[in-house]
User: What shape does this take?
Amino acid sequence: MSELSSRIAGIGAHLPARILSNDELSAMVDTSDCWVRERTGIRQRHIAAEDETTADLAEIAARRALDDAGLSADDIDVIVMATTTPDFTFPATATQIQARLGMTRGFAFDVQAVCTGFIYALSVADNFLARGQARHALVIGAETMSRIVDWTDRTTCVLFGDGAGAVVLSAEEKADPPNGILATYLRSDGRYKDLLHVDGGPSSTQSTGHLRMTGNQVFRHAVTNIAESMTTLCERAGYQISEIDWFVPHQANQRILEGVARKLSIPSQNVISTVADHGNTSAASVPLALHRAVEDGRIKRGDLVLMEALGGGFTWGAALVRF
Assistant: This one.
């Protein structure tokens, strides 16, 4: 068994300057502020400028995480970046961040698990550190979902926004009680692809395509699968749900957050919700919510934090961290 654990040493986030409110969106598509708020809890989303890419957002979040950790790019051994909206089909957007930061050592690659991407990337990076293959890792979730949204489809375009979040993981000797990433749990089931997918790609249509979703079925699977991942993870790690200080869910829909909380009898005040301010930012949403709660002082060192997400594919998973 490894004698190393992965501690979150720094955290950073970035949202584009452009804010698209529900009222402004209602002039573009048949919707209203009341309709969107009642069904999703979202009041606005951030939209990248025309010349602003996923790498642009990710770079800012990454630099802020490095500053928060008191480290430089020279200290980083690996970059694992979760994104559904890369700048290019190849190379990996993570390698673009590597170059922009001036990191000339180690390695960098992307992970594609849609909204669960940050949880997947965190798990992958944790394994490198736990096995002693790296000392410091930069884990990023960044998206420009506005590039793949169909702005004529009111059932989906109201949900998504752009943004980036990042954490620095540092390997350290295991403490008693343990700190850092205590356990992760990952799942997927490709049979449900048609419920949440993008209808394009280089091999199939030679185009980017647009996001398509069967909302009511996604909602049902989200509540069930997320609750299952949380309870399974806690059981494997030896904790009760009631022992968790903070829950940081994927910010997809306020109704999903509330549905999971009810199913597991989690007090609403223990659930971090930022979906109203930036909508569903896919792989960026968990680190954005984590950053908000750390920045405003709710999440403190030593707190037990459970992060979870479900994304297209389906993919889903959870991570338990002693912050």
The chain has ten helices and 13 strands.
